[in-house]
């Protein structure tokens, strides 16, 4: 869906020298895409319902999927959260002091003036303070809080470069601030929701989306702030909902981060298996492999294209490359599918935050095939874990 007609309303990439004009554009209710340390965001004036509606229309995003508001200070966020929720203020201050600016989004009860359209009518608003200098400079120039989901068509792979944004939104009336390098973290922020359980101030901090900040990090912060007796930290990142269900935070829908071709996970039992049948070799000839730590490097000679997100198995390196690599993979000529290794998922003490975030993104991007886990079978590795589908 285009938000305007004619070439004058098509997307254009602008330089950082035009930030002042971008800020004015945001104040007037138009859209500006900008880099953060996580991914590119599609920004609008957060307190202007008409501007917020333009973001949903440009992305073709359901109104049940709320937006994150970007600010540069705890005080600015507190102006958006319900000030009557005094018992939650200590936790919000502690978490923002420790992790802001940075890749942590905090969800709390909203102040009365926050537009319902921004929050999927849930009454809870999500706020984050980005660390990217261009993002912070743009917020300062706009002089208003900026609501911004990822700057892509809904459900597609998140963008980490200005060109990615243009590829998805070239027919929309949006300015795209160019940045010299790819977004450094490369996956969206951790999202945590604060709820208060009783009059004595006891409450729950629930991690809803995994990012660079771990559940352990949040728990440690609350302990150091002396709040461990008042709050418990829970994790609910496995939850996924259908697109018509309203949520308090983005990234909760069943299908997310998806490239334009079919994607499948490979079971660990197949790592190292290189004795492939002619049929399997033929199937790999149109397959793009996105590896991690060389787990399926033995298939490199047979596949159409191969890239390792991190040859050393470094989750930070892999996370910064995953969306860029998915966009590369979907553009490989003659490619029919993407394969990537299953990433181990265990308890929070053994898996670092970005490894869990990486697993979350790769799992959700192939969620239209929720059981598409390639396992060994009498027919080779062509059967899926459910036994109901076959890749080859």
Give me the secondary-structure topology:
Layout: E1 12-14, H1 19-27, E2 31-34, E3 41-45, H2 49-59, E4 68-70, H3 74-78, H4 86-99, E5 104-109, E6 124-128, H5 133-142, E7 146-147, H6 162-169, E8 174-177, E9 190-196, E10 203-209, H7 215-224, E11 231-235, E12 262-266, H8 278-284, E13 287-291, E14 305-308, H9 315-330, E15 337-341, H10 353-365, E16 373-377, E17 380-384
Strand order of the largest sheet: 1-8-2-3-7-4-6-5-9-10-11
Most strands sheet: 11 strands, mixed
Structural class: alpha/beta
What distance lies between the first and last C-alpha atoms, to the nearest angstrom?
35 Å
Q: Kindly estimate the percentage of residues that lie in beta strands according to DSSP.
A: 15-25%
Order of helices and strands: EHEEHEHHEEHEHEEEHEEHEEHEHEE
Beta strand count: 17
Mean pLDDT: 85
Radius of gyration (CA) equals 21 Å
Shape: globular
Please, how many helices? 10
Helix percent band: 25-40%
What does this structure look like?
The protein is of the alpha/beta class and 392 residues long. The protein is 26% helix and 20% strand. The chain is built from 10 helices and 17 strands. It has helices at 19-27, 49-59, 74-78, 86-99, 133-142, 162-169, 215-224, 278-284, 315-330, 353-365, and strands spanning 12-14, 31-34, 41-45, 68-70, 104-109, 124-128, 146-147, 174-177, 190-196, 203-209, 231-235, 262-266, 287-291, 305-308, 337-341, 373-377, 380-384. The strands form 2 sheets. Strands 1-8-2-3-7-4-6-5-9-10-11 form an 11-stranded mixed sheet, sandwiched between helices. A 6-stranded mixed sheet has the order 14-13-15-12-16-17, with helices on both faces. Helix 7 (215-224) links the parallel strand 10 and strand 11 (231-235). Helix 1 crosses helix 5 and helix 9 (315-330) packs parallel to helix 10. The longest helix has 16 residues, at 315-330. The chain is globular, with a radius of gyration of 21 Å.
């Amino acid at each position: 869906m285009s938000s305007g007609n004619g070439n004058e309303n098509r997307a254009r990439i602008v330089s950082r020298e035009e930030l002042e004009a971008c800020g004015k554009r945001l104040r007037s209710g138009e859209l500006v895409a900008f880099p953060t340390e996580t991914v590119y965001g599609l920004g609008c004036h957060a307190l202007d319902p008409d501007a917020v509606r333009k973001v949903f229309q440009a992305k073709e995003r359901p109104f049940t999927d709320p937006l994150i508001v970007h600010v540069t200070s705890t005080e600015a966020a507190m102006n958006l959260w319900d000030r009557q929720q005094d018992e939650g203020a200590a936790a919000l201050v502690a978490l923002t002091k420790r992790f802001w600016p940075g890749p942590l989004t905090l969800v709390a009860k909203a102040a009365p003036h926050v537009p319902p359209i921004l929050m999927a009518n849930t009454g809870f608003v999500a706020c984050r303070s980005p660390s990217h200098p261009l993002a912070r400079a743009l917020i300062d120039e706009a002089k208003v809080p900026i609501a911004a989901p990822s700057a892509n068509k809904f459900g597609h792979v998140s963008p980490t470069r200005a060109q990615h944004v243009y590829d998805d939104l070239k027919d929309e009336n949006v300015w795209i601030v160019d940045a010299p390098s790819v977004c450094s973290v490369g996956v969206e922020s951790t999202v945590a929701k604060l709820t208060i359980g009783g009059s004595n101030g006891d409450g729950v901090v629930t991690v809803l989306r995994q990012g660079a900040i771990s559940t352990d990090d949040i728990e440690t912060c609350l302990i150091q702030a002396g709040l461990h007796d008042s709050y418990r930290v829970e994790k609910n990142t496995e939850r996924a909902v259908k697109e018509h269900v309203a949520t308090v935070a983005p990234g909760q829908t069943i299908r997310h981060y998806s490239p334009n071709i079919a994607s499948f996970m490979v079971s660990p039992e197949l790592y190292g298996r290189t004795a492939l049948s002619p049929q399997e070799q033929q199937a790999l000839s149109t397959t793009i492999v996105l590896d991690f730590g060389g787990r399926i490097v033995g298939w490199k000679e047979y596949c159409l294209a191969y890239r390792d997100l991190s040859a050393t198995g470094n989750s930070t390196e892999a996370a910064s490359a995953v969306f860029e690599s998915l966009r590369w993979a979907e553009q490989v000529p003659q490619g029919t599918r993407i394969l990537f290794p299953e990433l181990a998922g265990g308890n929070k003490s053994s898996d670092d935050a970005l490894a869990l975030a990486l697993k979350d993104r790769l799992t959700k991007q192939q969620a239209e095939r929720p059981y598409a886990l390639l396992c060994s079978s009498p027919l080779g590795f062509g059967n899926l874990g459910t036994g109901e589908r076959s890749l080859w």
